Amino acid sequence: MDAAEERSRCEETHSDARRGLLKALVALGSGALLATAGAAEAAINDQPPRRPGANGKRYAMLVDLRKCIGCQACTVSCSLENMPPIGQFRTVVHQYEMPNASGNPDMLMLPRLCNHCDEPPCIPVCPVQATFQRDDGVVLIDNERCVGCGYCVQACPYDARFINHETQTADKCTFCEHRLEAGLLPACVETCVGGARVIGDILDPASEISVRMARHRDEIKVLKPSMSTNPHVFYIGLPDEFVDHVDGQAAVRLSEGH
């Protein structure tokens, strides 16, 4: 075999090797893409199982609007405790003007935060399962997994989520779960001047929140019950006008009977 033939054969061999490598890379990429798409579809369509939390408990918060004076101590203490970026808040107190019976305006103070729902619409829309719920009802975000897509922000009917400007991941109230695990109250509850906020285990009939809710059973309301999310932030003194028509609308609606 002369040099020209040997060179031609080597070029053909190298070309075949390159084609084989390209085919392998394409197959590998396609497989990874399908696997990712499959995982995303499963996450969107299926509610992930709850993760372990405080065993045997179901945390909830009760807000007595008759005691809220709108001092914003809860907002400030939450910011100091959890350090969200300046201008972003995990809890806020909105103020509304309402005409009273004499026609003069009254002020309504309405604390807002994540409702830690039993049917949280923010969880099934997450394509990477970064948002999850614990057995004790607390809804949390795994910031190592979150990609900042904002689907959960759009799905929340309570306007309780935001994309953190610094981390570029989803952020929200966590009931200060790190404090609960240490036997402490959430920052907002601990600093509430009027004692308007109470948190506790609603599965324990002797807990303060259970006793108060039993005492005011006929006065307990939640925000947007028509969304069928079963929220676990309860209000005393919430006017009917605010039950379904408060600011913060979900871009992703829940179907009837969900």
UniProtKB/TrEMBL annotation:
CDD domains: PsrB. The chain crosses the membrane at residues 21-40. Keywords: 4Fe-4S, Iron, Iron-sulfur, Membrane, Metal-binding, Transmembrane, Transmembrane helix. Pfam families: Fer4_11 (PF13247). SUPFAM superfamilies: 4Fe-4S ferredoxins. InterPro entries: 4Fe4S_Fe-S-bd, 4Fe4S_Fe_S_CS, DsrO-like, ET_IronSulfur_Cluster-Binding, TAT_signal. Residues 59-88, 137-166 form the 4Fe-4S ferredoxin-type domain. This is 4Fe-4S dicluster domain-containing protein. It comes from Tardiphaga alba. The lineage of its organism: Bacteria, Pseudomonadati, Pseudomonadota, Alphaproteobacteria, Hyphomicrobiales.
